[in-house]
Amino acid sequence: MIFNNRFLIIFLLPLYWATAFGFTEYLLKTCQQSGFCHRNKVYSQNILKTKNSYYSIDLSSINYEVEKSKSELNLFTANIIKTIPRPDVGDIKVVLPISISFLKDTNSVRLTIDEDRHPELDNSISEILNPYRYNETWKWAFDIDNKDILQGDKLSFYELKGSSNNVISLYNRDNSIKVEVYTNSFKIKVFYNDTLVFTVNDRLFMNLEHKRLKELNFQNINPEETPYNMFGDDFEYSKDDTLKFGPESVALDFTFNNMENVYGIPEHADSLKLKDTSNTEPYRLFNVDVFEYTIDSPMPMYGAIPFMIGTNKDTSAGIFWVNAADTWVDIAYEGSDTKTHWISETGIIDVVLFLGKSPSDLTKNYIKLTGKPQLPLLSSIGYHQCRWNYNDEPDVLNVDSEMDKYQFPFDFIWLDLEYTDDKKYFTWKPNSFPNPKRLLNKLARLGRQLVVLIDPHLKLNYFVSDSVVEDQGCVYNSEGDPFIGHCWPGNSIWIDTLNPIGQKLWDGFFKKFIGSIKNLHIWNDMNEPSIFSGPETTAPKDLIHYAGFEERSIHNIYGLSVHETTYDSLKEIKDGSGLRPFVLTRAFFAGSQRTAATWTGDNAANWDYLRISIPMCLTNNIVGMPFIGADVAGFSGDPEPELLVRWYQAGIWYPFFRGHAHIDTKRREPYLLDEPDRSIVREAIQLRYALLPMLYTSFFNAHRTGTPIMKPMFYDKTMYPELYAIDDQFYVGDSGLLVKPIVDKEATSVEMMFVPGIYYEYTNLSPLIINGIVPQSRNIDAPLDIIPMFIEGGHILTRRNKYRRSSKLMRHDPYTLVIAPDVYGNAFGDLYIDDGETFEFEKGEYLETNFSLNDGKVLKSTVLNEPQFDNVLGNTDIYEIKIATAAIKKTVKKTVTIISGSNKHEVPLHRSEDGNWVSIRYPKIKVDETWEITF
Ligand code: NOJ
């Protein structure tokens, strides 16, 4: 059993009990304390001085696969030779196979570098371990159903030039990408439309620590290397790591040429624009449980998406480091370049470099490779009411009815840990939830859903864990015995969802647990995995997973494997009804967007966590995982009413909008607030619901093209350098809605940044004109009942105004269109509607309509797609069309003419008292019809 007294000390630390002290940082390694990070940092510092290069391509090994048959991948392959000069014993040469390919339709280059291992000659490796480097992270990260992309694009040709440092040039099909491979001193330059975008191994930091015997270690080290912790681990909490393979790290440096801004690589509680780490810790990607994490910090968190985006005004580039091991990333902004250094503990070098004109090109191509963000249940983008814990059935039903009594719309209610029988997942606490079906049926009456928590640790000695051990579907310790560690239930084992046996068992448990219930969904928490008795709050790195791979190699995809297996199982269960499952995961990796929503974990009820939640959500949104939110209004601690109000006003913009609270906190369901706070929060949640048509359209656009739902200012506007570092205001999808939530105590106004153009204050459509050619800030009034929000001129928003208790009950309500013309009198908007709950949209059962206003004169709808069946859309009537008039005053008349099919009629225009807008009521047209209105 891997768990000793030292671990007990950690376990006894009150990690989960609200403290005023924040995260206990000493539990986590610094780079200095992490053997492989330390070694690579030392290596890079020394190499900068010596400029020695130990890696070159063996020209005789080059193999260029000319199109032999259509189905064959077109790869450039060769061997890199790592040479360790040893005049005494003769140079040591290590063979590292490299491959380069262009991935189809994604404007990307893939580079892999492995190690040629010969297990048959090496009896130093334990029999229960897989002797090879783990090279299957891509199988989890990529959308492997999309076989097309993996086919690879054609390499058009290559040539060898010169003799001092031979260069091989590879071109993609349309010659927009050129890859120059320098062979003597290994280096790669990547050009996009003839502009140099990336230099790989620019600073010669490449380091692949090859397999060697401990006794021969010193023969295998270059002068720039340090042997620090190569075969052992000095860190207080991971001294037991057996490190059976010794040093195995992989590292490479990438320069973003002529780019001074990089983003991405969540999860960190830090700014949107990544910071220079020359004098700080590198950003670390290592899924860990970090209660009350430190903010403004590069420390690791629950999830890891190793995708970084760089941009300047007209070119963008992305690095996708496909590695699931513990990873550190250093960033240096140097002159007009950004220099990055990626270091992983093990695995192979597998990296995809994306090229494009704008960040949206990158996100779009990245999700082609890693999979589309799911289109979730419409109800799941409503409000979620959660707490650790609602105690029993009456408690749940009471919250349910109090929400209605005070007119707070909501769709999901949640049961945390304590609903189980003694923390045994797949069971219900008998006295508290004697009849779960009855509860679920009651909730279903208003279209509501229930989420319950199921974690991957399984309490010892009950039918679930017993069968997992018996059928060998669990995670094993380094000796090959079932690993037993500590989590909520005490001694537990962990399901191995990388293992087909584990997947099958997991699937079976869900089938039995959920049966025919339709409105029950799942929350996979603690799946980093969180292990109270483990080093760094997680799994010992020498645990063994499926196919003999160590935890060390697969760590960051474990959580993905858990939630994806859960999703697959729920999807199968729901297949009869065709309903979309909802799964929330705490740990995530690239690819998680296909099947789960996530949240920013255990924050605390203070203003700093509210502030940081915005850049955190923005970051996930630009790396293809938009369905994210933060616990409103802070997980631990009791928020003062002002903070709670402001947090709801911010939370309504999170793609995933959930109120949640720690078990030790006071009850804080929004109806418990006093007036006027209760009404202010009610108004905010009702606004979220009014905007569901627009938000759901944004989710569809995210699903289709990766468009962020919370979109950073710079994202579509890279021409304005003033926007590159803004991360406290954002656009909502493509809607043109620009929001700046208040995150400061006692604030009554706020500085907000606008690019030149016309804006309309959301509630009264009063205009704000920004002249000139550069972005400017304006002071915006924001007393407690105001959320600073504007519609950017040029957009058309769709909403449903009437309060209903849940999203489902809004299906029968008509729509309102809000037209916000730009200075030329033009505006555009799109609307997506489907049944909100099944996969029928994949067969074309949805409506997509475009609305456009031209020159302030003609407003028209164009139906791009409509469903075949009548019952898909609900009510499609338009109740009102509201038009902001500041930019089109001259063209507005007293009546308007509506042409719809062969129907033509005149309707009066209403004018607002303040003159900000005109409106057409009951125009007798629908959102799923083609019509034209002439002003
Ligand atoms: C940790 C999660 O982050 C938190 O949201 C949850 O309430 C607790 N686990 C208890 O399950």
Automatic annotation (TrEMBL):
Residues 1-22 form the signal peptide. It holds the Pfam family Glyco_hydro_31_3rd. Residues 822-857 form the DUF5110 domain. One of its GO terms (molecular function) is Glc2Man9GlcNAc2 oligosaccharide glucosidase activity. It is found in: Endoplasmic reticulum. Residues 97-330 form the Glycoside hydrolase family 31 N-terminal domain. Residues 373-697 form the Glycoside hydrolase family 31 TIM barrel domain. GO terms for cellular component: endoplasmic reticulum lumen; glucosidase II complex. SUPFAM superfamilies: (Trans)glycosidases (SSF51445), Galactose mutarotase-like (SSF74650), Glycosyl hydrolase domain (SSF51011). Keywords: Endoplasmic reticulum, Glycoprotein, Glycosidase, Hydrolase, Signal. The keyword Lyase does not apply. InterPro entries: DUF5110, Gal_mutarotase_sf_dom, GH, Glyco_hydro_31_C, Glyco_hydro_31_N_dom, Glyco_hydro_31_TIM, Glyco_hydro_b. Residues 706-797 form the Glycosyl hydrolase family 31 C-terminal domain. GO terms for biological process: fungal-type cell wall beta-glucan biosynthetic process; N-glycan processing. Pathway: Glycan metabolism; N-glycan metabolism. PANTHER family: ALPHA-GLUCOSIDASE, BCDNA.GH04962. Belongs to the glycosyl hydrolase 31 family. This is Glucosidase II subunit alpha. It comes from Vanderwaltozyma polyspora (strain ATCC 22028 / DSM 70294 / BCRC 21397 / CBS 2163 / NBRC 10782 / NRRL Y-8283 / UCD 57-17).
